[in-house]
Amino acid sequence: MSGTDPPPRAVIDADIIFSRVLHDLMGRAAQRMRLFNPVWTRELLAEAKQALMQRKGLAEDVAQRWVEYLSRNFPNGETSIEEALRAAELDNLTNDPNDRHVCALAIASGADYLFTHDRGYLADRLADHGIKVTGPDTFLAAAFKSQPQAMLELLELQASLWAGGRPVAELLDALERAGAVTLAEMARTRLLEVSEP
Which helix (H) or strand (E) holds 132? Predict the structure, then answer.
């Protein structure tokens, strides 16, 4: 990507929004480093909100504020989906009929990426539409490899704002638990290198 090319467009699936630390980091990587432009629908945010209320036991207003991060920070990413894209042909893109709306969003928005931990998406078939299905760890680790200092600064910023301010090591532990294992390992190694005399 040259300096004049727009960042790739990407869907952050509800299972990533569900993780506060990972969701925040993905949002900061998009906003501050312009690694990608998030795209979303009201349906996706509603799915994430429901999961936060049911599985994390969050109050409705807390869950609403959580999912509004995308709509508040990336208002231009809202995508409308024509009814035609909700048709039966979307069944061949995922093993879960409940995820058809996510596939429709990815296609309608011209997304380059679908960030998810969900293994129900049929990556080969989505690739036919130019969409790469990948875990956020893979994407973030590649970003760290190409821009280690910028990513480290992003992690330090997030740690300073997380729950009133925590050590970066605690944030890396939380990111590892959220599935960003490679990123956490790379960041720990880098921190050790820069702390050595």
Answer: strand 132-134
What is d(CA 10, CA 39) in angstroms, rounded to the nearest whole number?
A: 6
**Is 146 in contact with 103 (CB distance < 8 Å)?**
no
DSSP 101: H
Instruction: Specify the amino acid at residue 97.
Output: P
**CATH number, span 9-134:** 3.40.50.1010
- For the record, the structure tokens of 44 come out as 């996706």
Give the pair of three-digit tokens for residue 160. Answer: 């300073």
Decide if 120 contacts 93 (C-beta within 8 A): no
Q: How many whole angstroms separate alpha carbon 33 and alpha carbon 186?
A: 18
Q: Using one digit for the tens of pLDDT, what is the confidence trace for 94-118? A: 888 888 889 999 998 999 999 999 9
Where do the domains of the chain lie? 9-134, 139-195
The pair of three-digit structure tokens given for residue 46, joined into one six-digit string:
């509603």
Residue 176 has a CB neighbour count (10 Å cut-off) of 18
pLDDT tens by residue, 49-102: 999 999 999 999 999 999 999 999 999 999 988 755 655 467 688 888 888 889
Say what the pTM is.
Answer: 0.90
| Order of strands across the sheet that contains 9-12 | 37-39, 9-12, 113-115, 132-134
Q: Tokens standing for 92?
A: 């061949």
Q: Report CA Rg, the chain.
A: 17
